[in-house]
Automatic annotation (TrEMBL):
One Gene Ontology term of the molecular function aspect: dCMP kinase activity
The protein's enzyme class: transferase
Name recorded for this polypeptide: (d)CMP kinase
Alphabetically ordered keywords of this record: ATP-binding, Kinase, Nucleotide-binding, Transferase
Length: 97
């Protein structure tokens, strides 16, 4: 959650992948249920919103997109569409570094 700002600040291509809390909760619920685990959507959503809040407000390496990052909202995208979008961003940056 801090790759572009802390871990790899000099990367040629930075992508800040985001999705609505509601969609991330739906995805997590589906993942848990596919493994046969109980998954309460409201609890998952609350946990995600709390984690986001804590991460945004922490003093050290708060959650935020790097200034030069491409923000990619994956709320309405499939995993394949996300991969294709990131590949497109990477190809678009070839030769610009």
């Amino acid at each position: 959650r801090d790759i572009g700002t802390v871990v790899c600040p000099d990367a040629e291509v930075k992508v800040f992948l985001d999705a609505s809390a509601e969609e991330r909760a739906r995805r997590r619920q589906s993942e848990l249920e596919s493994r046969g685990e109980k998954a309460d959507y409201a609890t998952i959503l609350h946990d995600i919103e709390e984690r986001d809040r804590r991460d945004r407000e922490r003093d050290t390496a708060p959650l935020k997109a790097a200034e030069d990052a491409h923000v990619l909202d994956s709320t309405e995208l499939s995993a394949i569409e996300v991969i294709e979008a990131i590949i497109g961003l990477a190809k678009g940056s070839e030769g610009s570094g």
